[in-house]
Amino acid sequence: MASHVRVSHKTKNLPKSKRRWEVSYTDPLTGRSRTKGGFTRETDAKNWMIKFEDSIREQTYVDDKAGGVLFIDASRQWLNVRRNLKDRTYNDYKGLLGLGESKRPEEDPKQLLLRNRFGKAAVSAITEDAVQEWVTDMERAGKSGGTIRKSFILLKQVMKEQLRLKRVAVNPCVDVEIPKFEPWALLNDEDEGRRLEPEEVERLAEALPHPFGFLALFTAYTGLRAGEVAGLQLRDIDLAAGIVRVRREVTDINGILAYDEPKSRKAKREVTLDPYILEELRAYIRAHEKEAAEWFGEREDATHPGKKLPLFVGTAKGRRGKNPVTGKFDVIRFDYTKLLRHKAWYGRYFKKALEAAELDSTYRFHDLRHSYGSWLYDAGVDIKTISRMMGHASVETTMAIYVHPDRDKANDAVRNALGNLRAGSSSRRGNVVPMRRQA
Prior knowledge:
Number of helices: 16
Number of strands: 10
Oligomer: single chain
Number of domains: 3
CATH architecture of the largest domain: Orthogonal Bundle
CATH class of the largest domain: Mainly Alpha
Mean pLDDT: 82
Strand content: 5-15%
Order of helices and strands: EEEHHHHHHHHHHEEEEEHEEHHHHH
Shape: elongated
Radius of gyration: 33 Å
Low-confidence stretches: 183-193, 322-326
Strand order of the largest sheet: 1-2-3
Structural class: alpha+beta
């Protein structure tokens, strides 16, 4: 039905000065007939109708009532239908949108969180200037480029959905300028020194109790992330081929450990094992399978998972058993039905082992992964292979964050190159006969 202007039925019998005009039109979203009233002049009603028809033709129509939806409600609706998100990603988005246990307004005085800045605003009232101001405030507050970019992209996705639902005429994020995020911007002097040498890793492994000593050694020689190490099962180890297949990781969702997909598509990979670590792994698996068989054999309420047994399992309640030799309660007990909680063993043993091994106390578990990339780079392995082994999305990430070549070697290489160039230039000058200057 075409749009048309008419006098309101309620006022058609009133004097002309008191009559009201209305526009009858078809809602483009529902196909139902609707009425827009309250116009005191026929001209105003016609102007509204022309504007409405132009918005339909230009595909910029916005539902006046729908545009009043608050951002907090719109973002919750947007997140609830994202069924394909990984649990970890879902919780990250939930935190950024402020839909979970978020900071209260008084704890976020600059209103940097999306919920505190835009939560009570109607989606149609969020403007490009407001978004740009929010981005600028985050920069001034010292937020990293990566953090700003992640929050901004999330806002842009939510507003894109509002555009599809005809709640807004344009996405206010389209032309907003955000700081560039470059992986190498994460580097600083402290990061560049975060690598251990093989001898230091050996000392660390010896200072850690079983099996965490081997876990540290294994991580340093495979470059796996902490969650990927915890996610390994016996079926992921191919001792004959000398490879480890990364197919899952363990993630902590609200205090509950669960298997999840790896960090990215390229994080699913096969990692080649060094002959040294391969033999250590072979011995560890033999002992691990024997201990697991004994543990399950003593329990009727637990079933052995076979090759789905985690390579590293979680600790049992009480954690420590009595040492029959020393009489001390220093034997770590394990529950072979539990997944390994990285933060628990890291906080309980890793820092103490650094001190016992007389290593820098600021080393992190993740530095074992850094070391792996650096060792391969120093050994001359091409950067694409290193990137693939480490499961990075791009070679630039490998170069910028994880590869720290030996500075002395780099400096010597530069000096030698320039020295050879200078020597070659001198020899060429010796063969040149100077030209006589003409009088």
